[in-house]
Amino acid sequence: MASASIQKMAMNPDLAKERRNASFHVENLTNYIYHGTERVKRKRYIQNIAQQEDCIKNSKPWAFRTRQEEYELSLNKANHILKRQKELSMTDEVDKFYFNEAMLPNENNPMGLHFGMVIPTIEKHGTPEQKEKFLPLAKGMKIIGTYVQTELGHGTFIRGLETTATFDQKTQEFVMNSPTLSSTKYWPGNLGKTVNYCVLMAQLYTQGKCHGPHMFLCPLRDLVTHQSLPGVELGDIGPKFGYRGNDNGFLRLNNFRIPHDHMLMRYSKVLKDGTYIKPENTKLSYGSMVMIRASIVGMTARALSQACVIAIRYSAVRRQTEVSPGGPEAQILDYQTQQYKLFPLLASAYAFTFAGQAVQASFLQISKEIEAGNLQQMPVLHALAAGLKAFSSWTCSAGVEVCRMSCGGHGYSLASGLPKIYTNITPSCTYEGENTVMMLQTARFLSKCAMKVQKGEKLPGLVSYLSTDLTKKSCMTADVTFDCLVKAYQHRAARLTKAAAAAIQRYMNDGQSPAEAFNMASTQLIWAAKAHCHQYVVNVFVNTVTKAKVDKNTGAVLTTLCKLYAVNGILENLGEFLQDQFFSCDQVDILTRKLMTLLAEVRPDAVALVDAFDFPDSVLESCLGRYDGNVYYALYQYAKSSPLNEQDVLDSFHKYIQPMREGQASSPAQARL
Questions:
Q1: CA distances, 326 to each of 190, 352, 463, 608 (Å)
Q2: 259-268: per-residue pLDDT in tens?
Q3: pTM for the whole thing?
Q4: Structural domains present in the chain
Q5: What's the CA gap between 272 and 285, in Å, rounded?
């Protein structure tokens, strides 16, 4: 996050050498990551346009902005984004993503939930009449909305939500209420001050019966004055760990009435006489949540990728301590301990990048099937999206913190850019579903699949490996083939799933209810769910690499990264692979030696591999991760730009320091010290 006044400087010689010595052409890998040369050109063109906007060029470094300034700037940028996208006839969603990322790096777009959740929810869950009425208003920004679900007392447990929507047959309205303090809606993004509408989850009551949570379009503010409506109390919840520019909000409703057609009724309906018609499948209302969870995998991958760019470039520039006494200070990237910190995370960034693309493709395909009335794959998609959301956010948020610590003291400074990445990605462990609960949702699906295996039933493709013969041992040899790696992960996941299912059955045999048995086996179930997600990511990475249409050198470096991800994952979870002696001692030794070999193989290409992610400096906002490597000049400029340096002697000196000094007896000699 260097000062805007920094001029273009010569490339740091260490970084220049790293790039010259790379074994592959960076551009070839970049083109593969972003699906072709034309897409990369388009991406760079769009990002360059964004970087020229006045609200980007003329803004002060983000670390020195107040929360009020952050909020107003985010609105200013959002306005520019909409204006420029219209002027450029930018309709492609990928184009919009890169423009938004360049304008709001690691920040929240105040209109993000409106376009990312509210409009898609109306499209997927509204009747034709509702879509005709509300979509033009939403797309024309007459109504600006957010998705309101989480309450003070309930979040991920949707069935426990307390907000009520009671149908009044006489007036043909729903009466919306927050009956308890804990029913206060809390945390929805942009709810506090920005939006005037929301998609609200509330318990539906008709004819004296509760029919569970349903979605309602709920107005919140006057569409002209923006004043909150009578019966609506809402506001900002205050500063958070990150996302300083986001007005996460609270909402309370007091006998607030909305028209009959404000309940989204494509699947479930309330007739004019109060008769409730239930949906064909109650899970259909979770489509928006599944969509967001699927997208989180790619989002967390980008956060980890950016952290790796910063940490690895800095590690190539930073020199510290001689390897041999009397010799030159070494690049810290030459120390194996630094490589062991960073290179598996680099491999993970690639793994989750490809996994994110795969799960997004699965979501789009299965969504088409659902729209066509085929609901067979819905449980598979729900379990996959929930588990991967948790697995990726846990891994990537922890990885960003490792990257920060690997940068030593400078990593602690906001100038590094790493604290901003971390504080803005770590909430993904709790929003859109708390991770432990997400893993248990995946585990519940796996336990059902395990029961089907026992009955000899056929399983869907993504979980067909659960039928693996667990008596077989590893085929691992010194070649460390992809086939043996994939089989190892499938064996681990299948065994842990079988063990968790057996634990449930054992507790039930001892007299526990199914719910109690599930709870008593829940830790083992989470082990199984994590293993399932891990094997999915490994499988996707292997399939991506083996099918990649790239040149020989690019293919070789991708193979190295893939094996590093898989081998490191085995060694980090070795206990789970050894419980049934799946690996022999010799095979463990093979994998350990292979890990060290892979670290050495990645070393010459490390800088080129992070360059391939193609993040411009304006997106990284990091003094340590600059493409030109002029780290120390950037840190110096950053320090000089601190608002505390606008005066040489601050007023606080006269208010506090001088009185302290005058209150102490001191000699002239002491005063000169």
A1: 58, 42, 57, 30
A2: 999 999 999 9
A3: 0.92
A4: 41-110 (1.10.540.10), 114-279 (2.40.110.10)
A5: 22
